[in-house]
Amino acid sequence: MTQPSLILFDFDDTLCVTERYMSAAFFEVLRDYLKPYQPDLTVQQLVVKNTELYRKHGSSLHGWMHELRKEMDFTLDMFAKFAPVLKGAVMPHTQPNPGLLRRLGELQEMGHELAILTLGHRDYCLPILDKIGITTFIPHEKVFDISVMEGRLKRDADTYHHLLKHHLKGKYRHKYMFEDSMANLMAAHKAGFGTFLIGPKRPPEELDSSIEHQAATINQALDILMNEVLPA
């Protein structure tokens, strides 16, 4: 191989199934945090509003910052409050994925660069990555948290340009992004990444043209990468 490729992963529900376990804990902490600002908000209203802010901003916590007219320190403090609670909710349910670890090892042996781009939960996901063995192949210094990158969001193409300019500075033959969010992949594609959508298969009419591959699991997606995309 003359030149390595960059293989960038999302964490939640891409490398590891997490969101089904964190939902209840997330809204419990969020309601407590927002009580000084939204004291009469019911849980149902909170869920609806949080979803609305996520769709508008690409991150509900960034959305609350704008909604309450706060600064970035407010959002970073929220992320810090969430980290131990989410870790406690998710950690007991996580186990190593032997197929994933084997594929990561093979990609590493081939000389490719592996990294993770997560939104605001770096301190929460690092202990989980340790537990399930992924940091053997993607060390902590290759886990990038864009919540501290000047308030950037994954659905902005400039975030990926920023990552490549300031953090992942290698000369890459190709760049690939694995994500469970189509909106985030659309931004990554604008920044020159090949795209892999992880999750239940969607019909073609629901897919943006920037989505090049889709697979139900990360293992299946890596099979496509290694057997079909990289050899091409």
From TrEMBL:
The keyword Hydrolase applies. It comes from the Bacteria. It catalyses: 2-phosphoglycolate + H2O = glycolate + phosphate. It is an enzyme of class 3 (hydrolase). The keyword Acetylation does not apply. Signal peptide: none annotated. Its EC number is 3.1.3.18. One of its GO terms (cellular component) is cytosol. It holds the Pfam family HAD_2. Keywords: Hydrolase. InterPro entries: HAD-like_hydrolase_sf (IPR050155), HAD-like_sf (IPR036412), HAD_2 (IPR041492), HAD_sf (IPR023214), PGP-like_dom2 (IPR023198). Belongs to the HAD-like hydrolase superfamily. CbbY/CbbZ/Gph/YieH family. This is phosphoglycolate phosphatase. It comes from Blastochloris viridis.
